[in-house]
TrEMBL record:
Catalytic activity field: beta-D-fructose 1-phosphate + ATP = beta-D-fructose 1,6-bisphosphate + ADP + H(+)
Protein name in the entry: 1-phosphofructokinase
Coiled coil: none
Known function: Catalyzes the ATP-dependent phosphorylation of fructose-l-phosphate to fructose-l,6-bisphosphate.
Pfam families: PfkB (PF00294)
Keywords: ATP-binding, Kinase, Nucleotide-binding, Transferase
Biological processes annotated in GO: carbohydrate catabolic process; small molecule metabolic process
Keyword Phosphoprotein: no
Length: 318
């Protein structure tokens, strides 16, 4: 996974504002009091761009933003030095509400619908990505697909960008993931539930998850990473297979943890590291992010501390 061109482009079709509400003792159907609230720009590709920014490669964010909520995203892009090639659509980007009850550890998600994307906007995005492929060698296609966009969009983009010599990573779910896998991107990162849906069978333990990941790899996907929350992640490539288990950490927010894992994997692989190092580094990076609210990368010294505490287990050929 060593593209000829240095730049990384993340594509977010369904950007979101992540609103986190801290509500001790949250109870459905009752009056609840919120003790703290944060709003951060999000969407999977936006998060990946924020985590990769400040590294050795230029980072560009592409996709769609609602005009009314664009200033929040523009402030992030300026702060992190991310090139803004997102197309603006009338209205507001969707809001994802996460209600956090620290007393019980429960988290409740309320995801509002996003913008409808007209056909002409999708055509404009295709042209934008074609132009970006002239100077950028890696594309990250991630997140849900908004209304007006066909479910095979990531497959279409994968084929189009790989034909231009780009490395393509995909992180999505459901039908968009099913279509994308058929187009054989270079890297996919489902979570265990998404992988179970994809292979149409329950995956009840790490061994079953590993077998399903190997099936994707055998089907032509160079790197398969499966996130399993506190149970770590599985990494499968031509270099072998590993399970990485993170150390216990204080959790401020799980929003964006999977995106931090994607960013960590890409940063390590694009720098030429082998699978074991990639797994260890990305797991430490994702674990460090858990202490942050929003797309805020952990400090390098914190990642270095966590690197030593990540437990690595090679997986057999089963």
């Amino acid at each position: 996974m060593r593209p000829r061109k240095p730049g990384v482009v993340t594509v977010t079709l369904n950007a979101a504002i992540d609103q986190t509400l801290e509500c001790p003792g949250f109870t459905a159907g009752a009056v609840n009091r919120v003790v703290a609230e944060t709003r951060t720009p999000g969407g999977k590709g936006i998060n990946v761009a924020a985590f990769l920014a400040g590294g050795t490669r230029p980072v560009t964010a592409a996709g769609f933003l609602g005009e009314d909520s664009a200033p929040l995203f523009e402030a992030l892009f300026r702060e992190r030095g991310i090139q803004d090639r997102c197309l603006r659509l009338p209205g507001s980007s969707r809001v994802n509400i996460k209600v956090v009850d620290r007393t019980s550890g429960a988290v409740t998600d309320l995801n509002l619908p996003g913008l409808r994307v007209p056909e002409e906007a999708l055509d404009a995005l295709m042209k934008t990505l074609d132009a970006l492929a002239e100077e950028n060698g890696c594309f990250v296609l991630s997140g849900s697909v908004p209304a007006g966009v066909p479910a095979n969009i990531y497959a279409t983009l994968t084929e189009r960008l790989r034909a231009k010599g780009a490395v393509v990573a995909v992180d999505t779910s459901g039908e968009p993931l099913r279509h994308a896998v058929a187009a054989k991107p270079d890297f996919v990162k489902p979570n265990a539930h998404e992988l179970s849906e994809l292979v149409a069978r329950p995956l009840t333990n790490a061994g079953e998850v590993a077998r399903a990941a190997r099936e994707l790899h055998a089907g032509g996907i160079g790197l398969v990473v499966v996130s399993m929350g506190a149970d770590g992640a599985l990494f499968v490539s031509d270099d072998g297979a590993w399970r990485a288990l993170p150390p216990p950490v204080e959790v401020a927010s799980t929003v964006g943890a999977g995106d931090a894992l994607v960013a960590g994997v890409l940063a390590a692989r694009l720098d030429g590291h082998g699978l074991e190092t990639c797994a260890r580094r990305s797991t430490a990076f994702a674990a460090g992010k858990l202490a942050k609210v929003g797309p805020v990368p952990p400090a390098p010294e914190r990642v270095a501390e966590l690197l030593c505490a990540v437990r690595m287990h090679p997986l057999g050929q089963g």
